[in-house]
Design brief:
The complex is a heterodimer of chains A (392) and B (450). Chain A has 392 residues and is an alpha/beta fold. Chain A is built from 11 helices and 13 strands. Chain A has a domain of 273 residues: Alpha-Beta Barrel (TIM Barrel). With 450 residues, chain B is an alpha/beta fold. An 8-stranded parallel β-barrel of chain B has the order 1-2-5-6-11-12-13-16, surrounded by 7 helices. The two termini of chain B are 33 Å apart. The chains are: A alpha/beta (392), B alpha/beta (450).
Chain lengths: 392, 450
Amino acid sequence: MSVRQIHLAAALDGAGWHPAAWREPEAVSAIELFGPRYWLDQVRRAESGLLDFVTIEDGFPLEPGALPRLDASLIAARVAPLTSHIGIVPTITTTHTEPFHVSKTIATLDYASTGRAGWRVQVGARAAEAALFGRRELPRLSIEDLGTPEGQALIGELFDEAADHVEVVRRLWDSWEDGAEIRDAATGRFVDREKLHYIDFSGSRFSVRGPSITPRSPQGQPLVVALAHQSIPYAFAARSADVALVTPHDVDAIAGIVAEIRAAQAEAGRADERLLIFGEFVVFLDENPAEAIARKERLDEAAGAPYRSDAPVFAGSPGALADQLEAWAEAGLDGFRLRPGSVPHDLDAVTRQLVPQLQARGLFRREYEADTLRGLLGFERPANRYAPAIAA
Amino acid sequence: MPANRLKQIHLAAHFPGVNNTTVWSDPRSGSHIEFDSFRRFAQIAERAKFDFLFLAEGLRLREQNGLIYDLDVVGRPDTFTVLAALAAVTERLGLAGTINSTFNEPYEVARQFATLDHLSEGRAAWNVVTSWDAFTGENFRRGGYLPQDQRYERARSFLHATRTLFDSWHGDEIEGDKASGAFFAEPKPGAFSIHDAFFDIEGQFNVPRSPQGRPVIFQAGDSDAGRDFAAAEADAIFSRHGTKDAGQAFYADVKARMAKFGRDRDQLKVLPAATFILADTDAEAHELADLVRHQQVSGQTAIRFLEQVWNRDLSGYDPDGPLPEIDPDLGEHTIARGRASVRMNRDPLAVANEYRALAEAKGYSVRELIVNVTSRQNFIGSPRTIAETINEYVQADASDGFILVPHITPDGLAEFADKVVPLLQEKGVFRTEYEGTTLREHLGLRRFGS
């Protein structure tokens, strides 16, 4: 089976994904991590490599051993007017946020980027995060506890809420039909209110009346991206997302995961809809693979522990990574989100070394072929669910 | 130097919202949604060395008679997102957003403003408002359940919570020593614990101290309690007293209240919203103002305004005819929803009688009455007249400056920027270059944190 084109995204977080990445000589100073130039610089680097999109990690708590974080959606907005083709996908939790706010945040990002916005949906299971809001009690569970019946019940509840949240956001994105703003001087009407729709969602956690205050954005439906590691989030991604990010640790695991997601997609009545499945890697890249491995070891030593991740960790040459991506794409993945171990080194290795390797194999674009994120990922601009169907 | 003795004027630009100020039918009138309109508006303001740009808030589309109100501009983007994007295309202009304390949580709002302050390198401002209506609440988890007397208490508690969060970092916690691996200079940066009647929250705030320490805080309350609140807590007041006499009385009142809270008078700026109509001569400007007023108040719009006082469907009435003989419905206000102005209406029967008396005395039709009683233009005249008037108001302590709202978006500000601002600069009452980089510096406000 031959591979068509591979899609590539970069996951931006702090100084890179390794906890000691900020200590690298090339890393920006600690203060600069919280300034606008650093983030703009990263996204521009990713854009120079023609990547489909960047994600920006986020989370509310200051976790032990982790760095502070700026609000991801505002970083996205800050870089949007100064970039031109790359998709920008901030992370926002569904557990502690208002769907109404999230909807207009992403729609407005879509306006500011003229059609390049996405939303990486995340749930927050941590009790320490809930304590920052004081609106709900979450049980204090460790990562290990998430496999227990209690843990699975919590995960199930949070993803059910996430599905409702995304449903509300998607309805709000459609709550203005295209062309609702008419500016009809003859009748004095600015909008045609027949083209504005109440969404009237009612669920166990919230109900939302609508319509949005923000008109339908350039993409209509910005891209929804979800990271998933097990059955409950697979089902969520299959039901609610446009791009599922998954973390198989070997090539043999891919077929099973893809089959599970496709089955869940069919069950959710979305069998005909486009849903891309991306693999994930944390990457440490050098032309000489021994250097990449040594660099990761040096970082591990600085951090005081070997780096572990939910995603497979790749330390080696860009060429070897290209081989692996090609093989994994053949096994059924549409693309990959790469998490640079340290920035700028590993981000530049992706754009300057990995990308040319993939281009040489005919697996990656040589120029941006579309102006919107949906366009880059092969999605049409969708019909509005509230618009009257056009008679055949 | 005599110029130094003159009080300096502060100017801001209000991107027009969803009311009838905007003459959207004018061919020069651009989008209220596309980012390019915001960019142009902000860049005009920055070119003119304005202090800041201001965005209002409305979280549900307005309705009247049970239908979405369609005669004014409808729709707006998300405030935080637009301000962060504008930070990319401006360098010095302050970025002020109205964010309510009812349908948000302190941790999230503090984080958004601290982030905006970082990403704009010290230009963030927050106009804190309360909203409580169940109508808007239908769009939110939290709903609209707060009784009116609790909304200020919650607002105060909310503001204190965010202040605690902003102050949870002092500014010297980040060591970032690559050699030793010490990122923080202390073990628990950003630790906070807030337990009061409204909030029960604790943890570590995860955004480091921002350039201004705290965003500039705006307040708009006008009641006795609201004025005390502003005198105690705010950096600036978005005031509704734009005339000279009312402005002076308000200014003297709020500034006098500051002493009891141990604050210096110059640490609170009073900035009313103001509209303007410019033309080459005063006579032309008055002619133009009359035209614009009639564009802003169509016959349909006049009837809608009247309904907001009468609390009745008056669609059967002729805007060019006399006022209704029927009295306002004094029951619960149901006709117009999502408008602050309706909630602020005084005794509707008294207003109706006032209107009737005025209409009778002047021979006004419904439309002419509304054109006259909702008169919006604060400053009408030639550039010289307007510059002189603004300066006179500010020197006489009717305000510290104005937040200007043009009636054409986004380019309606350009005329003011190009023609009035240079005259103010000539008088030595408005900056010719930004002296500082942060909004606190523009406004002469102290910063917080180390």
